[in-house]
Amino acid sequence: MITVRAPATSANLGSGFDTFGAALARPADVVAVSKAETTSIEVTGVGAQYIPEDPEKNTVGAVVEALDAPAHIHIDKGVRPASGLGSSAASAAAAAVGLNELYDRGYTREELVPIAAEGEAVVSGVAHADNVAPAIVGGFTVTTPTATHGVETDIPVVACLPDVAVSTRDARRVVPETASMDQVVETVGNAATLTIGMCRSDPDLVGSGMCDSVVTPERARLITGYEDVREAAFAAGATGVTVSGAGPAILAACEMDDRRHVAAAMVDAFAGAGVESRAYQTRIGPGATIV
Ligand SMILES: Nc1ncnc2c1ncn2[C@@H]1O[C@H](COP(=O)(O)OP(=O)(O)OP(=O)(O)O)[C@@H](O)[C@H]1O
Ligand SMILES: N[C@@H](CCO)C(=O)O
């Protein structure tokens, strides 16, 4: 049996829609795989009741198919589904790393990214790899249709998760089909600023590059209290705030000394909007690890 811990992730980071991703030090899924004649899946943990155990419908089933690696798979969920924290990707990433090891398939971490992304197609209709990439490789990642590049970085973040669900499939329906040239220029500038910030482990630069005027405003409308939470996080010292993945989680970057205040401010602001939430005080961390 092989057991793998794969982290929650935050995709987009504002200016990097379907491209940027970051691994969060916590929460995480823990997935155990053992060889079997036919594949079976058992799910326990946070939100397990909402996750199908049918291999055709669970993200890990697509990974089993892609690796031709039938197994009994136990998924212990630490990342709540429909969170914007890469819940479906965490399981797929852990399964890809575990089954690659179990069956000695010999793929590199980068080669496992498109394999794990097949699982995302099962739940959202698109094999977007911006969550599975950091969940497998760790740190900050840039994923294009042909490659994944990652860097280690040290950025404190708060991921505040309201007690409501937003499915990625639904949140992709509000993504605009076009952007103006002004928006393209602005986005390139912000994405480049964020990337330099990640390379320098500089929360100010990362935060200022987290802005996006194309996708984020549309997604923000799906999250009750978004503007209040954003303002409260900035007032408490956040350097940047945006929708995490497809939402409803909201991600804030900050200096380590401000992390606690930012977390409290975000939870209080959600409460003011009538929404319960929990804040993960975390940081950008490593990818999947065999435990
Ligand atoms: N192993 C799995 N873990 C979590 N969700 C799964 C899994 N397999 C299938 N699902 C389904 O995927 C959906 C959740 O995925 P979705 O992409 O909407 O959320 P997320 O992964 O938390 O968000 P995001 O991709 O925005 O970070 C739920 O409908 C859930 O039942
Ligand atoms: N890039 C994807 C990530 C989902 O977590 C989206 O925003 O739809």
TrEMBL record:
Keyword Amino-acid biosynthesis among record annotations: yes
Cellular localization per UniProt: Cytoplasm
Organism of derivation: Halopenitus salinus
Metabolic or biological pathway: Amino-acid biosynthesis; L-threonine biosynthesis; L-threonine from L-aspartate: step 4/5
The GHMP kinase N-terminal domain, residue ranges: 60-139
Sorted UniProt keywords: Amino-acid biosynthesis, ATP-binding, Cytoplasm, Kinase, Nucleotide-binding, Threonine biosynthesis, Transferase
GO MF annotation list: ATP binding; homoserine kinase activity
Domain of life where this protein originates: Archaea
Catalysed reactions, as listed in the record: L-homoserine + ATP = O-phospho-L-homoserine + ADP + H(+)
Function: Catalyzes the ATP-dependent phosphorylation of L-homoserine to L-homoserine phosphate.
Gene label: thrB
Binding site for ATP: R80, P81, A82, S83, G84, L85, G86, S87, S88, A89, A90
Any Gene Ontology biological process: threonine biosynthetic process
EC number: 2.7.1.39
Domain GHMP kinase C-terminal: 198-268
Alphabetical list of InterPro entries matching this protein: GHMP_kinase_C_dom (IPR013750), GHMP_kinase_C_sf (IPR036554), GHMP_kinase_N_dom (IPR006204), Homoserine_kinase (IPR000870), Ribosomal_Su5_D2-typ_SF (IPR020568), Ribsml_uS5_D2-typ_fold_subgr (IPR014721)
Record's GO cellular component terms: cytoplasm
Family the entry assigns: Belongs to the GHMP kinase family. Homoserine kinase subfamily.
Gene3D superfamilies: 3.30.230.10, GHMP kinase, C-terminal domain (3.30.70.890)
Predominant cellular place of this UniProt entry's protein: cytoplasm
HAMAP family documented for this protein: Homoser_kinase
EC class (word): transferase
Name listed for the protein in its UniProt record: Homoserine kinase
